[in-house]
Structure formats: structure tokens, C-alpha cells
Write a structure and sequence with these properties.
Strand content: 15-25%
Number of strands: 13
Strand order of the largest sheet: 2-1-4-7-6
Helix content: 25-40%
Distance between the termini: 173 Å
Number of helices: 9
Order of helices and strands: HEEEEEEEEEEEHHHHHHEHHE
Radius of gyration: 62 Å
């Protein structure tokens, strides 16, 4: 009973399968895929890279020489397809022992008016196992904008690969070779030493040329000028030592005293820009700027004027003084220098004295004499560029 049920079930299953396998009479057959409009051509070349040079080879020929393991192999695909179409390589392809190294596609530049474009594709392979290997054929698809697809297939590549070992079945060690000398001449240290020596010589030569022909260093500044009172004291001392009145040389005596005093006043108070010594000025021209001087105690403008006039009387009026008068003139000249001597300050010091120090060197109002407590300071004319320090130790005593 159970066997009859099994047979009936099998018969029913087969009948149902035949019914399902028959096509529906009302269903139309599927439309065939449409290709691109135009022709699609494919040509392929195979080459082996030997020392960087491509050697064309037909791997499917019977007499093709084998290649060694690791040799670079290039499969070139030359595809001609219609304009406004694109070429697609297979995204996944089983290449067997052919390992794909890189893919190079030349840029496509269609010629104006041409119906077809040419595209070159280079597939670089390498095989790393001896034996006979096959690169199976694969499809290239050409597509257009309307959805048409055309397919072209490559030819399979059958290649025999051999090992780089000469006797790969029974490998043996090569015969012993003669020793090879590994001694080589190394001139690196010599070159380095020569370069360093050349740089040293060039540096020394450059330093010598710079010192010989380069810019000269500026000369040292001249020594500061001697103070006016030192020069005046030296000249008055020389006049006193000459004893000219005893020899009757009164005119020469008074001329030298006058020149010493005038030169001192000119340098001390900077009386003239063109004639700082005051030797080219007349007595009246010399006395005009001296009216602005603030004289210390024991000296005033009248004493200076009388000293210069006494010298002029002997020089120009031919007055014959006595020896006592001559000695008194020299003593008055010494007294003038001693009472008005001071330290000359430069332009840098003038800026430092612009504050409270300037209050102590201001001339009194016109017609007013300095007071006893003002320290005896003196200032040159307004157009002068020097300021003199005070002589607090002078109390107007005679020299």
C-alpha cells in the first residue's frame, strides 16, 4: 500500500514540472540586447620586455621560445570603436598565474570628422611560477549613450615559463671559481681633502684681497682741542719769560699781550664763526658780543675794555709806557684768564643741561648786575655754542 502512494506522488510531481516548464502562450519572448551603432574592432599584440626593449612574441605559436620566471609581459589591445562611445574593462577577471602589474590607457583624441576612434590599452603581467600557463580570454564592452552595448573578446594567451636555474630538475652547485680581488681605489678622502684645502686657500686669498683693496677703516678722531685758558697761560708765560720791557721792546710786548688776550677771548666765548680766535676783529667789534657775557666776580666788561684799549694805545698811538705799566698789563691779562677760565662742554652736554642747569646759565635782565649769591657763572654770546662751568673758588683776588 505504501509503495503505491510513493509511485502516485512521483507521477504527480513530474506532471506539475512539465506544466510549469511550458512557456505561457500569452507572454512575448524577451527582446534581444541591442548593440552600439557602428563597428567595433579589436587587435591584440603580445610582447616580452628584454633589457627594457619590447620583443614581439606569439605565445600561441608552436615554436615560441619560453620566458623565464618574473619576465615582464605586455598585452596590447588596440580597440577601434565609434565616436561618442566608451570602453569598459572587466572589473574582475581570473588571470590565473598571470599577475596583473599595471594597466596603461593612452588618452583618446578623435580626429575631426572621423567615425571611429582608436584606443590603446597595455596590460602588464608577470608570471612567477615555472610551467605552462594560460591567460584566458576576457570580454571588453563598448557602450553608447542610448544604452547599446557591444562586446569584443580577446584571444587566450598560452605561455611556457621556465626557471632561471639552468638545471632546474637536478640543481647543482657551480664549479669553484678563482678568487676575485675586491680591492678598489677609493679617492673620496683625497677629493674631500682637496676641496677643503681649496676652500681654505680661497678664504685666505679673499681675506687678503679684502684687506688690500677693500674699504679702509675710518681714521681715528683727532684729539680734542686744548682749552683756551691753557693756550693763553702758555703764551702769557712765554711773554713774561722773554723780558721784552727790559730790552725796550714795548711795542712787541704789548702786541703779543693783545694777541694772547684777543685769541683767548675769541676761543673762550666763540665770538665769531669765521674767526674763532678773534684776531681779525677790531677792538670795537670784539667788545660788542662781550657785552652779553655774564662776568664772574672780580671781572667785568669795563676791565676787559680798558685792557684792550691800553694795548691799542701802545700799538697804534706810539705811547711809551713804563716797565711798571707793562708789568701791570701782563698781570691784568693773567687775572682775566684766571677768572674766566672754565670747562668747555660739547653739544652733547648742552642737551643734558637744558633742564634745571639752564636756569643757572641764563643772563640777567639788561642793565641788572649779577647778585653776590649766583656763584659767578658766565655765559658766552647768544650765537655761541659753548657753556662754561662756574669758578666758585674765585673771589676776585689778584693773581
Amino acid at each position: 500500500m505504501r509503495s503505491a502512494q510513493i509511485v502516485i506522488f512521483l507521477v504527480w510531481t513530474l506532471s506539475v514540472g512539465e506544466v510549469l516548464a511550458q512557456p505561457d502562450a500569452g507572454t512575448a519572448p524577451a527582446a534581444a540586447a541591442r548593440g552600439v551603432e557602428g563597428e567595433v574592432h579589436l587587435e591584440q599584440d603580445f610582447a616580452v620586455l628584454v633589457d627594457g626593449q619590447r620583443v614581439a612574441s606569439d605565445p600561441n605559436a608552436a615554436q615560441t621560445s619560453p620566458v623565464t620566471v618574473g619576465t615582464a609581459l605586455v598585452l596590447t589591445l588596440d580597440v577601434r570603436r565609434p565616436v561618442d562611445t566608451s570602453l569598459a574593462l572587466p572589473s574582475e577577471q581570473d588571470t590565473g598565474r598571470f599577475e596583473l602589474v599595471k594597466v596603461e590607457r593612452a588618452p583618446v583624441a578623435p580626429e575631426p570628422g572621423a567615425a571611429l576612434v582608436r584606443e590603446l590599452i597595455e596590460l602588464h603581467f608577470a608570471v612567477f611560477r615555472p610551467g605552462r600557463h594560460v591567460l584566458e580570454a576576457f570580454d571588453l564592452k563598448v557602450m553608447d549613450a542610448q544604452g547599446g552595448i557591444s562586446t569584443v573578446s580577446t584571444r587566450p594567451v598560452n605561455l611556457r615559463v621556465v626557471s632561471v636555474i639552468a638545471n632546474d630538475k637536478n640543481p647543482e652547485m657551480p664549479s669553484a671559481q678563482r678568487p676575485v680581488s675586491v680591492w678598489t681605489e677609493d679617492w673620496a678622502l683625497v677629493w674631500i681633502g682637496g676641496v677643503l684645502l681649496s676652500l681654505l686657500v680661497a678664504g685666505l686669498l679673499g681675506a687678503w684681497l679684502y684687506r688690500a683693496f677693500g674699504p679702509k677703516p675710518p681714521p681715528p678722531p683727532p684729539p680734542p682741542p686744548r682749552p683756551a685758558h691753557e693756550i693763553a697761560m702758555e703764551k702769557l708765560g712765554a711773554i713774561a719769560a722773554a723780558n721784552l720791557p727790559e730790552q725796550g721792546e714795548f711795542e712787541a710786548y704789548y702786541v703779543r699781550v693783545s694777541e694772547a688776550v684777543r685769541e683767548y677771548l675769541g676761543r673762550r666765548y666763540n665770538l665769531s664763526i669765521t674767526d674763532q680766535a678773534g684776531l681779525e676783529l677790531t677792538t670795537e667789534e670784539l667788545l660788542v658780543p662781550l657785552r652779553e657775557v655774564r662776568w664772574p666776580r672780580g671781572m667785568d666788561h669795563f676791565l676787559v675794555e680798558s685792557l684792550l684799549h691800553d694795548c691799542d694805545i701802545v700799538k697804534f698811538a706810539r705811547y711809551s709806557p713804563s716797565e711798571d705799566e707793562a708789568a701791570e698789563v701782563l698781570m691784568r691779562a693773567f687775572q682775566l684768564v684766571e677768572l674766566t677760565r672754565g670747562v668747555t662742554l660739547g653739544s652733547d652736554a648742552l642737551g643734558a643741561l637744558s633742564g634745571e642747569a639752564a636756569d643757572g646759565v641764563t643772563s640777567p635782565p639788561e642793565g641788572e648786575a649779577p647778585s653776590e649769591g649766583e656763584g659767578g657763572e658766565d655765559v658766552g654770546p647768544a650765537h655761541g655754542a659753548q657753556v662754561q662751568a662756574s669758578n666758585e673758588d674765585e673771589e676776585g683776588d689778584d693773581v
